[in-house]
Amino acid sequence: MKRVLTFVYGIACYGIFFASFLYLIGFLGDFLVPKTINSGSSGFNPWMATTINLGLLTLFGVQHSVMARPAFKRWWTRVVPQTMERSTYVLISALLLILLYWGWQPIQHTLWQAQSFTGTAIGYGIFATGLGIVLFSTFLIDHFDLFGLKQVTLNLLGRIPVPPAFQVRSLYRLVRHPLYVGWILAFWGTPAMTCGHLLFASVMTLYILVAIRFEERDLVRFHGQAYERYREQVPMLIPKPGQVHPPVAAAFAPETRNG
């Protein structure tokens, strides 16, 4: 019975996160959902709105990074069963995203606005490309492990989960962090950039650059020279023209996953 409940918990956590991700598309894209990054009036002056938004972004960033660190996981799994650890991380991330949507204060002063169909298409094209890279990258890592479904499913079947093998293939032959490249494109891809959207994109990009350093430090500690060689040969976020790392199967397994 406990295994069944754990499985249901994992499915529910994934469902909540998936719904929050779908809402994020409308929130950033400024369409379809009731409240977007630009909709409505904040009721606060720009400085107060900025302070509130920074607090929400910081809360999400700290949780998202700290809970992904191996040291925190070792402590956390004394409280939360190992099989539920990833699902719980995913759930908390989703709830903080929902809090961000609810509490976000729009700052609507427009910095640039596409004046043609072509410009609008380019803005939304960058946005859609980024989201596509994000989704594709999760499957290159192991989508179901990344969001806790694999762990609860194996637990239900009475099997011990094995860390997914990291394969240097596809986008990982071009850059070390295609998932983050996708997010950066999604954050900045828009036909109309407001001050509020600029704040969101800037802070989240800064968070990514900081998180990469912590993540790679853990990866080097866990994988040693294997990851050091990979880091020397493959750029972090910007591909080098004509440079593609040869495919490597199961070179090392990712220990840290910011998701």
Task: Describe the overall structure.
The protein has helices at residues 2-29, 46-66, 70-76, 82-103, 117-141, 143-146, 149-156, 178-188, 195-223, 225-233; strands at 110-113, 166-168, 192-194, 248-252. The protein has 259 residues and is mainly α. The strands form two sheets. Strands 1-3 form a two-stranded antiparallel sheet. The two termini are 29 Å apart.
Brief digest:
With 259 residues, this protein is mainly α.
Shape: globular
How many extended strands? 4
Give the ordered list of helices and strands. Answer: HHHHEHHHEHEHHE
Decide which structural class fits the backbone: mainly alpha
Radius of gyration: 19 Å
- Helix fraction bin: 55-70%
First-residue to last-residue Cα separation: 29 Å
Mean pLDDT: 89
Keywords:
259 residues, mainly alpha, two-stranded antiparallel ribbon, 10 helices, 63% helix, globular
Topology:
Elements: H1 2-29, H2 46-66, H3 70-76, H4 82-103, E1 110-113, H5 117-141, H6 143-146, H7 149-156, E2 166-168, H8 178-188, E3 192-194, H9 195-223, H10 225-233, E4 248-252
Helix pairs in contact: 1-4, 1-7, 2-4, 2-9, 4-7, 5-8, 8-9
